[in-house]
Amino acid sequence: MQGFSDILQRLYEMTAIGSLGETPAYLLMYFIAFLLLYLGIVKKYEPLLLVPIAFGVLIANFPGGDMGVVQADPQGFVTLPDGSREVIWDMPLHKIAHELGIMNYLYYALIKTGLLPPVIFMGVGALTDFGPMLRNLKLAIFGAAAQFGIFAVLIASLLLGFTPQEAGSLGIIGGADGPTAIFTTIKLAPHLLGPIAIAAYSYMALVPVIIPLVVRLLCTKKELCINMKEQDRLYPEKLEIKNMRAVKIIFPIAVTTIVALFVPTAVPLIGMLMFGNLVKEIGSDTGRLFQVASGGLMNAATIFLGLCVGATMTASAFLNLQTLGIVVGGFLAFALSIASGILMVKVWNLFARKKINPLVGATGLSAVPMASRVCNGISIKYDPKNHVLNYCMASNISGVIGSAVAAGVLISFLG
Amino acid sequence: MENLGLGLLLMGVGMVTVFCILLIVIFGSRLIIALVNKMAPAAASSAAPDIKPVLDAAVACLTGGKGRITKITEL
To answer: How far A308 CA sits from the closest chain B CA (Å)?
Structure first.
């Protein structure tokens, strides 16, 4: 009889149920995971990223599962299951896998090294068409104005008591670019990776809600009815592109060279973005590279990035006031970036003959191409013939370059 | 206050850098376009005549013979 109760006791200890009773915070983490899964699967908010992130959150929060990422302290120490402490950078990868589980192996090999965000950027580059930007080069400048939110929230975060590195990571959410936000956070404040990645991707998913909100607050109906095609007809572009293919091949090489010379810390992002784009634009000669960059490799990187980012959100690391600050600050950064793009268009319109629809400024933040699609939707609501998609894409794509450059500046100064 | 100074410095440097890089990209791209127009303008529409029958067939197949191509524009 004694033996039977021992077996029952061992069985109970084997399950995670006992630990759940001792630490109810895990239940809240399950709720967050289920909510994110719901948003990804049912509401279709960025499902390619939200589903792996949410599942990572779920599997990281089962006591005994060894799937939660163990963050090293500022000196690099981690606590092993036997209570001893070791410097993570002195541990070989197989020991990390053995002592801390495979998720830590993946995290320290793929994420902490900063490998996956540039790989994803290569895929993004392979899927990006710079044609709309090249046809409307002037509009690309609004991609710069929309980076204001990054730095405004950085200052606000500093005043709220975040360290400069944490503030930089928080502000970069305003760039509306997931891989850039993750890359910057890995470099500056890796302990905040989970909440910052969640905030960045959640707000990107909420672009259809946030952009109309800011536009409604800042734009008049008359401004939203500015017809870009009509403006083009009245004031035509003087520079005609006679060989778009050649320009598209030279463009990524030139941009990489320019950015690498001025902001070398942005090269892992911009360089890979432009490499992916180059193999696309060359065409059939590099078709196999394009297929890998935009297909299998990008998808594999997305899976591992999502799961590992989700696994950083353990109950102890996520449930605190700092996370709340990140959620609020991230929203502010996002909204301010949209607003600053719109305001720059308004200032531009004060002086220019050729007027620009302020929706072009609203897409200066990244979130390609969803931001452009949303703005086009707003535009045709006011005038069914006023399609601004191509014009919005110009500032939208330049916003990707702008946010990567802003990240490079932050990493240079704070890293 | 020290942190505020750092934040303002970062904002100044960051925004100026982003604007400068994008201005260089814009003017650099205009230069590239001008040079390509001058040195290699001919390749623009050389492929169109050859692929027209293929596109016609594909559109006819997809639309059950109801659709047809009226204009091809090089992107």
So the answer is: 30
